[in-house]
Backbone:
């Protein structure tokens, strides 16, 4: 699946090969909340989290899922002549409700002939065997992905960012999910937490590479308004990745990453009015960032998994 031009496994290419054409993701907002905000686990949420920074404008209103999906399809069809879609339950924890409620929402999202799959973003502590069994059932007919926020493999970091669960919890739920062979697992990791050294971040890469993950999203840390992290940054500014630093470091991450993973994202973005740092995430287009990373990998004549240890081979539970 790795392209000679890309030097890494591209999630977009993977979908294109699987479905024979480009597949578009449609983000929807199902109005969930999160146990890290409503007091069930903690309050205040993760220190870096401002839901508005990763909720697309057109999904914010509490409009029915069916309508959100249809409006996006109409738009993508007209603008890009799109034909196939994956519905992406994005903001908050999209499995944080009883199964009967979830089933209704997911079925509504899938009720369109052009929808080929479902992608559900959540926390590892908002999943259980009953829900996974349901996803396994759905995966017989649809391309189903569960996206877990891993963020870091350091328990110290997870505590500092008020994540509300430890790495063992993430690991256990990813293993549980991967046991359902038809269900795909996506991991989301953040690099640049102020307490983490380069070595610590690469440890997260090694730990994540050791898990049965299919797709990975690599994000540089953002400081966004109205968050605890923004307050900390104002009180005592800490370094964030500049554009060139991130291109260099994410290329290094790629070299250490499990060569079987498909890379879905290389950086994060946030609305201009909310983003405090780093500003380049708003100024650069995705194409510019990806091009710079490709150039860097090319210049180093390197590729995904170059330094991935064979000992870290994927260990899918039996
Ligand atoms: S788990 Fe997700 S939604 Fe909840 S506070 Fe953390 S980043 Fe925000």
Residues:
């Amino acid at each position: 699946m790795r392209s000679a031009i890309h030097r890494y496994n591209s999630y977009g290419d993977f979908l294109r090969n699987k479905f024979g054409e480009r597949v578009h993701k449609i983000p929807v907002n199902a109005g969930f909340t999160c146990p890290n905000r409503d007091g069930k686990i903690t309050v205040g949420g993760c220190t870096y989290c401002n839901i508005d920074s990763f909720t697309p404008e057109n999904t914010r209103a509490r409009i029915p899922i069916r309508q959100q999906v249809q409006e996006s399809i109409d738009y993508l069809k007209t603008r890009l002549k799109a034909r196939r879609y994956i519905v992406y339950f994005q903001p908050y924890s999209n499995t944080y409700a009883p199964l009967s409620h979830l089933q209704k929402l997911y079925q509504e999202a899938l009720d369109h002939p052009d929808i080929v799959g479902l992608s559900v973003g959540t926390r590892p502590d908002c999943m259980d065997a009953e829900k996974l069994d349901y996803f396994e059932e759905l995966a017989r007919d649809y391309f189903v992905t569960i996206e877990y926020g891993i963020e870091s493999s350091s328990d110290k970091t997870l505590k500092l960012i008020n994540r509300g669960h430890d790495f063992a919890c993430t690991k256990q739920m990813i293993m549980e999910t991967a046991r359902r062979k038809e269900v795909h697992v996506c991991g989301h990791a953040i690099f640049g937490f102020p307490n983490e050294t380069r070595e610590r971040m690469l440890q997260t890469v090694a730990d994540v590479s050791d898990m049965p993950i299919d797709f990975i999203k690599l994000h540089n840390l953002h400081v966004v308004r109205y968050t605890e992290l923004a307050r900390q940054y104002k009180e005592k500014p800490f370094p964030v990745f500049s554009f060139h630093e991130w291109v260099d470091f994410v290329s290094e991450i790629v070299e250490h990453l499990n060569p079987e993973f498909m890379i879905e994202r290389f950086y994060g973005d946030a609305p201009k009015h909310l983003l405090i740092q780093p500003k380049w995430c708003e100024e650069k287009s995705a194409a510019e960032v990806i091009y710079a990373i490709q150039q860097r990998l090319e210049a180093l004549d390197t590729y995904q998994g170059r330094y991935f240890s064979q000992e870290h081979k994927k260990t899918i539970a039996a």
